[in-house]
Amino acid sequence: MAQEDVFKKIVAHCKEYGFVFPSSDIYDGLAAVYDYGQNGVELKNNIKQYWWQSMVLLHDNIVGIDSAIFMHPTIWKASGHVDAFNDPLIDNRDSKKRYRADVLIEDEIAKYDDKINKEVVKAAKRFKENFDEEKYRATSPRVLELQQKRDALHARYSAAMNAMDLNELRQIILDEEIVCPISGTKNWTEVRQFNLMFSTEMGSTADGAMKVYLRPETAQGIFVNYLNVQKTGRMKIPFGIAQIGKAFRNEIVARQFIFRMREFEQMEMQFFVRPGTEMEWFSKWKETRMKWHQALGFGADHYRFHDHEKLAHYANAATDVEFLMPFGFKEVEGIHSRTNFDLSQHEKFSGKSIKYFDPETNESYTPYVIETSIGVDRMFLSVMSAAYTEEQLENGETRVVLKLPAALAPVKLAVLPLVKKDGLPEKAREIVNDLKFHFNTIYDEKDSIGKRYRRQDAVGTPYCVTVDHDTLNDNCVTLRNRDTMQQERVAISELNAIIADRVNITSLLKKLQ
Ligand code: ATP
To answer: Of 64, 446, 455, 495, which is the most exposed, with the fewest CB atoms less than 10 Å away?
Structure first.
């Protein structure tokens, strides 16, 4: 199946099974805003819990906060967001569609990479076991020509982005003959800067109202509370502050479902370190975060790092954790070494000292910061993409199953009476009433047992328990495993011990030690 079709199926599945709905659905939706349904919210909460506990429970030097969405507007001046949080945008005059100029060029660079890879795959097929990929890449005239064009374009693009040279970005689009995917024409406008922050007014009278922003990242709430937390928590450097919360960006191109939203949620952790040690901590956090992702068990080949060449105004090193989505490797998390930029700026703009006195070195300094910043919604999409599976069964039917890591699954156990009579529903309810205190357990008696299994497969429930007539005598039930579809007979009294161990977040956290 083409990857595009897979993505469409995932989007449809999310809606059909109560994971994600378009916002304001009965009014035909609101662009790039989404709501999470009854299963989506559970999955999302589990992702957040996994992240939160891995930060706050597993590190005795990391604590959490929950800061407000509205903040003093000077914060965004100090952080650089008022002046520099811009995307270069360009319009196509024929289709009237708006694009990010940088994304158009990056897509063009990716096309060269695709062409090179296709050449390599073709040659590998031709030469079979004698194929030496490194040698082929270094000597094939076709590959060398493509590589040279790609590198030249990349160098030109990086220079233009670093200088934010808008005319040059437009010129690259014209020289590369990039066309609008909708109209197919090269009828482009000038490139303009577009600030991504939403603003509104706070206060009751028009005169006295103050322009405030909806935060475009949660990080600043951590920076401006850093000293409050350090003092009240008697934190010693190195230490971290974690936060989960909503962020808002007026994205120019808001496509690809929940990958790029205008209202989304971030999980950010700022780690405050002694100046000069930041690179060491940067690599440590890269490793720690990759381990967190890989513990979900989707396979190491689904992840890669992508180091930034163009660094944000505040960073001295940055990398993305990319995940193999149905539309290619895409950023899910950013890990940034933000220097002491933000704290120094807040010191300057607020006029208050926020230096840290280090009792070990007897010095006062402004700490350096390593940030790990992951989007809950992108993480959700990556989990959904990796979990969505269509299986061909022996009887010719197709089974749609969400192979979610059990600890993230919205429902952990479905208890199903074989028939709706003979005391089986009562027995099944008894089991639910006992287990619901330990994990999310549901009861379902509607439709045939086969249909009920399929329904649970489609929402990713790792276990189903069937209560049959024998249960009333032997107090045993059939336990069905979602992935293998294997069934085993187990005592009701053992269910909790068997299942809890596999479905609780603790099972994931243990892999991180
Ligand atoms: P992109 O380059 O894709 O716009 P970014 O580099 O601007 O992303 P960061 O500012 O590093 O993103 O934000 C950290 C994380 O927040 C991202 O890795 C992503 O998971 C998430 N995120 C950022 N923007 C959005 C958005 N519009 N919708 C959903 N998640 C987002």
So the answer is: 446
Give domain status of residue 289, yes or no: yes
What is the position in ligand 1's atom list of the atom closest to the CA of 320? Answer: 18
Q: How confident is the model over 361-405, as pLDDT tens digits?
A: 999 999 999 999 999 999 999 999 999 999 998 888 899 999 999
User: Within a domain: residue 1?
Assistant: no
Residue 140: CB partners within 8 Å, gap ≥ 6? 119, 123
- Is any ligand 1 atom within 6 A of the Cβ of residue 374? yes
Pocket of ligand 1 contains residue 333 by CB under 6 Å? yes
Beta carbon of 319 within 6 Å of any ligand 1 atom: no
**Which residue type occupies 371?**
E
User: From CA 269, how far away is CA 83, in angstroms rounded?
Assistant: 24
Q: For residue 430, how far is its CA from the centre of ligand 1 (angstroms)?
A: 45
Q: For 20-66, how does the pLDDT look when each residue is reduced to its tens digit (9 = 90+)?
A: 999 999 999 999 999 999 999 999 999 999 999 999 999 999 999 99
Q: Residue 82 domain-assigned?
A: no
375 lines ligand 1 (CB under 6 A): yes
Range of the structural domain that residue 181 is part of: 88-193
The pLDDT value given to residue 315: 83
105 token code pair: 């060029």
375 alpha carbon – ligand 1 mean position (Å): 6
Q: Considering its fold, how many domains does the chain have in total?
A: 3
What is d(CA 456, CA 452) in angstroms, rounded to the nearest whole number? 6
Between residues 372 and 128, the one the model is more confident about: 372
In the predicted structure, residue 207 carries a pLDDT above the cut 70: no
Tokens 């965004």 belong to residue: 76
Nearest-angstrom CA–CA distance, 14 and 381: 10
Which CATH number does the domain housing residue 504 bear? 3.40.50.800
| Alpha-carbon gap, residue 269 to 63, rounded angstroms | 9
Ligand 1 atom with the smallest distance to the CA of 333 is 18
Whether residues 384 and 401 share a domain: the answer is no
Closest Cα to atom 14 of ligand 1: 373
Task: Based on the fold, state whether residues 235 and 346 are members of the same structural domain.
Answer: yes
Segments of 98-224 assigned E as strands: 98-100, 192-195, 198-202, 210-214
How far does Cα 353 stand from its chain's mean position? 35
CATH number at residue 236: 3.30.930.10
Pairing mode, strands 356-358 and 363-365: antiparallel
- β-partners of residue 368 are 273
Tell me, using a 6 A CB cutoff, whether residue 35 lines ligand 1.
no
Inter-residue long-range contacts of 103-109, CB under 8 Å, 24+ positions, other chains counted: 103/253, 104/173, 104/178, 105/153, 105/157, 105/169, 105/172, 105/173, 105/176, 105/178, 106/157, 108/153, 108/176, 108/178, 109/150, 109/153, 109/154, 109/157
Q: What is the whole-number distance in angstroms between the Cα of residue 178 and the centre of ligand 1?
A: 25
